[in-house]
Amino acid sequence: MSIQQGSEDAKTKIMKASKKLFAQNGYEGTTVREICEEAGVALALVSYHFGGKENVFYALFEAVSPDFLNRDYELQDPEADLRDFIQEFIKFRHAEPDLINLLQQEIIMQSPRLEKLQTYIYTLWLQLRTILEAGRERGCFYYGSLKHTLHFVIGALIFMKKVPALDALFESADTDGNEESLEDIIASTILFILNGIRI
Q1: Are 161 and 106 in contact (CB under 8 A)?
Q2: Pure H helices in 26-113
Q3: Which CATH superfamily is domain 67-197 in?
Q4: pLDDT (tens digit per residue) in 109-135
Q5: How far is Cα of residue 15 from the mean position of the Cα atoms in its chain?
Q6: Binning pLDDT at 50, 70 and 90, where does residue 152 land?
Q7: At what angle do helices 114-137 and 97-109 cross, to 10 degrees?
Q8: 3-state secondary structure 105-158
Q9: How many CB atoms are closer than 10 A to CB 96?
Q10: 62 contacts 120 by C-beta, under 8 angstroms
């Protein structure tokens, strides 16, 4: 293994460990020492590769660029566009659960890092807003406040996750005990959101 390969390997290990620990313990609850112990690398390598913990945090979001992030929607059929947007976001959420959990924490805490995080996700929310506005103009969607509707849809997408404390609520529900498939989750979320904004 070359020195450069070893260096890149350490950087990847740091990012993987930090994603896991930030998602579990939050940004503030995770130390550089813990990241390095989890990654199995020397403490100095965080400074060497990233310049500090905050830059590791941002690097996690910089490293992920899903294809749908910069997609152009034609808006001829806003309902189809919204269905597609929801599906792609949920697939991304499924592929990157730690990153989404981290984003949840930052939003809830209204952290000082949130402003910079917006630069990574603003395009996504702008797409959603454009689809919602086009749907209202075409009579596909009905809603009063665009602001509240955006919050409603973003919340349904970002904050949908299992909460073990609520498991008792579902003990007597009509379930067969099987985990929902990704397709089921996508279908349920689309139904929920569309029911909230359709005439």
Answers
A1: no
A2: 32-39, 44-50, 53-62, 78-95, 97-109
A3: Tetracycline Repressor, domain 2 (1.10.357.10)
A4: 888 898 888 887 888 899 999 999 999
A5: 17
A6: very high
A7: 100
A8: HHHHHCCCCHHHHHHHHHHHHHHHHHHHHHHHHCCCECCCCHHHHHHHHHHHHH
A9: 18
A10: yes
Please tell me the CATH code under which domain 3-59 is placed: 1.10.10.60
Q: Which residues of 68-92 are buried (b: 16+ CB within 10 A; e: fewer)?
A: beeeebeeeebbebbbbbbbbbbeb
> How many residues are present in the chain?
199
Q: How many Å apart are CA 26 and CA 20, to the nearest integer?
A: 10
Rounded CA separation 28/83 (Å): 36
Give me the pLDDT at residue 114, please.
86
d(CA 66, CA 24): 23
Domain assignments of the chain as residue spans, ordered by start: 3-59, 67-197
Cβ contact 199:142 at 8 Å: yes
Tokens in use for 31?
């130390």
